[in-house]
Amino acid sequence: MEHIIKNGIVYDPLNEVNGEQMDICIKDGKIVDSVSEDANVTDASGQIIMPGGVDPHTHIAGAKVNVGRMIRPEDSKKDAESLAGIKRAGSGFSVPSTFMTGYRYAKMGYTTAMEAAMPPLLARHTHEEFVDTPIIDHAAYPLFGNNWFVMDYLKEGDLDKCAAYVSWLLKSTKGYTIKIVNPAGTEAWAWGGNVHGINDPAPYFDVTGADIIKGLAEVNEMLGLPHPIHLHCNDLGHPGNYETTLASFDIPKGIKVNPKHGSREAVLYATHVQFHSYGGTNWRDFVSEAPKIADYVNKNDHIVIDVGQVTLDETTTMTADGPMEYDLHTLNGLKWANCDVELETGSGVVPFLYSPRAPVPSAQWGVGLELFLLVNDPGKICLTTDSPNAGPFTRYPRVMAWLMSNRYRTDMIENKIHKWAQRKTSIATLDREYSLYEIAQISRSTPAKVLGLSDTKGHLGVGADADISIFNFNPETQDPSADYMAVEEALSNASYVFKDGEIVVKDGAVVNIGIHGRTYWVNSLYDAELEKQVEAEVEKVFKQYYSVNFANYPVQDEYLPRSNPVNGVME
Fold first, then answer.
1. Which of 102, 170, 300, 334 is the most buried (most CB within 10 A)?
2. How many CA atoms lie within 13 A of 364 on its CB side?
3. Which whole number is the average pLDDT over 414-436?
4. Contact (CB, 8 A) for 466 and 31
């Protein structure tokens, strides 16, 4: 099938296209140089064209997401859609059902979303939910930071076996990257405690968070994985944690990127950094240290971050950082759920209200925007809300509008949020405004590049997947700074979205649910003989400790109806 999108105003940072009027040609699901005269035509005159959005860190599938759905009927009631047209019925504001997740990402022009925390034991369930999530491409990040095998191999100083284990587990779970959450801390939580900072050891294993970060960063480059280690630092949400954050950032500094992956330059991806940028000793003397975090990112090339921007909504927090969720539960007194996943990880789920009139949420809102506005290079920062932790992903258009309009931010500061935003952060003094080109960077090109997928994603060059979003906002006659409500509305409801060359959204409505997204996973191989040896060691431990048979652990190919294995480069 051939298609041509004519006369749109294109923003494509990976190809250095900044607001040029261009035609985009599509054939067989890919972007091509030209098409025949018989091609279908879409007129995008006076409208923005960008690549499909790429969300590098979200929570949309898996065990804890389902717990969030189950314990929050009030969240489902808040936002429900009945069966309409071709769409399935669904519900959920902060934790939407699988079908609603695909529809809502697509409406915003997003075509790829990565589940950021998958317990290996529950990988099958995660992939089953992916099958039920329409339209968008996806991948899942297995949790390694509190895994018994990882800690045991690191305790022994055996990086080769650790690399072989990581390689085996990625293939077994059909996972994409090495995810580290509160290293050593979630294991300590299984013993009723936590770690504070990167130098406290995990019980029994006697390895520290610093050991885990450094060891897995080296393993990541030994394997040449497409994405850097994906790090959730220790001490999330605690005043004074910025010191732990900066120390964590320094650990993998100096490790060289494996040349197998020339599409990325960083060895560390730090996630939801807003929650890790706090100074002070308690909430009374709390102050933002986002300027120090941003300064570090500006001065160092080994790191890319995402923000975890607070959206000032009622939401559902969920993370593999179980002790942090318990702290949150004791703070707000709301219901909570906790789960340990055998030898691998744990998690917690707690509802939360980021009230704009409350002091701490207003300051957190300012901290996130400080990071966006103080990191100079949009090639080193990604747009996320750590959905749903700091707010639902459906607020991305609002965050984009905040970034493009100082007037919007000023209105929030003067009329809608607590004065702590001004007193505890520098947000009121920052007048930088993002351009549409920079918005395309933080939501398209930067995440695609740091994920190692920029050959086919995050751009509109020849050979890319024909994942394209069109928005009814004319930058030649409208100013995002002044017309911030109009740009938020346009980015919330795309006029067209193409997925693999097919129209899936038109005039803000989903019109095609027949597209099933790809599952990306890493098909790595470190050392075949060593992997067999490690597999035998793992099987022995399974028989002694696990609740499932070893043969039932790996995810079979039938769980991935449209699979894209990655091994250094796209196959």
1. 102
2. 30
3. 97
4. yes
Query: Residue 561 pLDDT more than 80?
Result: no
The pLDDT, as a whole number, for residue 570 is: 29
Q: Which of 76-80, 380-384, 566-570 has the highest mean pLDDT?
A: 380-384
Measured between its terminal Cα atoms, the distance across the chain in Å is 23
Report the chain's C-alpha Rg in angstroms: 22
Q: What share of the chain is helix, strand, coil (3-state, %, to 5)?
A: 35, 25, 40
Tokens at residue 493, please?
Answer: 């409801």
Query: What pLDDT digit, counting tens, does each position of 239-286 carry?
Result: 999 999 999 999 999 999 998 877 788 999 999 999 999 999 999 999
**Fold classified for 50-71+85-503:** TIM Barrel (3.20.20)
Average pLDDT, the chain: 95
Least Cα distance to 241 among 192, 296, 286 occurs for 286
Per DSSP, the three-state class of 351 is strand
Does this model's pTM top 0.90? My answer is yes
Q: Are 142 and 169 in contact (CB under 8 A)?
A: yes
User: CB-based contacts of 155: which residues, under 8 Å, 6+ apart?
Assistant: 205, 206, 207
> How far is Cα 446 from Cα 452, in angstroms, rounded to an integer?
10
Rounded Cα–Cα distance for residues 404 and 396 (Å): 12
Which is higher by pLDDT, 316 or 571?
A: 316
CB atoms within 10 A of CB 260: 16
| Token pair 């597209």 in the structure block, residue | 515
- pLDDT surpasses 80 at 571: no
Q: What secondary structure, in 3-state letters, does 64-100 show?
A: HHHHHHHCCHHHHHHCEECCECCECCEECCCCCCHHH
Distance (Å, whole) CA 306 – CA 322: 21
C-alpha distance from residue 18 to each of 22, 438, 441 (Å): 11, 9, 11
Q: What is the pLDDT of residue 567?
A: 53
Exposure string over 529-566, b if 16+ CB within 10 A, otherwise e: ebbeebbebbeeebeeebeeeeeebbbeeebbeeebbb
* Domain range list for the chain: 50-71+85-503
The DSSP output letter for 34 is: -
Strand 303-306, strand 381-382: pairing: parallel
Q: What SS3 state is found at 337? A: strand
Token reading at 255: 């490790």
CA–CA dist 187, 429 (Å, integer) = 42
Report DSSP letters for 487-511, one per residue. Answer: HHHHHHS-SEEEETTEEEEETTEE-
Please give the full DSSP string across 368-431, using - where no structure is assigned. Answer: HHHHHHH-S-GGGEE---TTTTSS-GGGHHHHHHHHH-HHHHHHHHHHTS-THHHHHSSGGG--
**Phi and psi for 506 in degrees, rounded to 5?**
-140, 130
Handedness of CA 415, 416, 419, 425 (dihedral sign): negative
Question: From CA 155, how far away is CA 320, in angstroms rounded?
Answer: 22
Helix (H) or strand (E) run with residue 28 in it:
none
Name the residue type at position 473: F
> Distance (Å, rounded) from C-alpha 398 to C-alpha 63?
29
